[in-house]
Amino acid sequence: MSRKNYIERSKPISCEEARQMMPGYLKGTLTDRELAAFLHHIRDCTHCAEELETDFMIEKTIHYLNTNEEGSFNLRPLLQQDIRDNTAALLRRRKMRRFRTAIIIITVILAALLILDLTGIFRITVFLESLM
Ligand SMILES: [Zn+2]
Question: Which residues contact 43 (CB under 8 A, 6 or more apart)?
Fold first, then answer.
């Protein structure tokens, strides 16, 4: 069974839209929905991927010049790592959100059963006893 993940299910966007999202991606200000669509596009569109690489390099170069940070200045693997990190973080957030939704649904069902039991509409305790 090969289920599509959140990124693969995201709605396709145009190169124009992807181009507009690039500053947001680099600043980390995209919403999850935007980030998913952006990562999806970058994966399939070499043109925009190259554009991102350029923007990424400019951004990192400016940052480097401003901070004079020591360390490796090999940007290509840095961008690959950045994309991998963003992908993993996005999918992790989605998973957590699904888990939270499941917990809420279970809580609501339990609360509803409790109310039915307390009001005498449906005595779940009596019902359960009858099963044993
Ligand atoms: Zn594109």
Answer: 7, 49
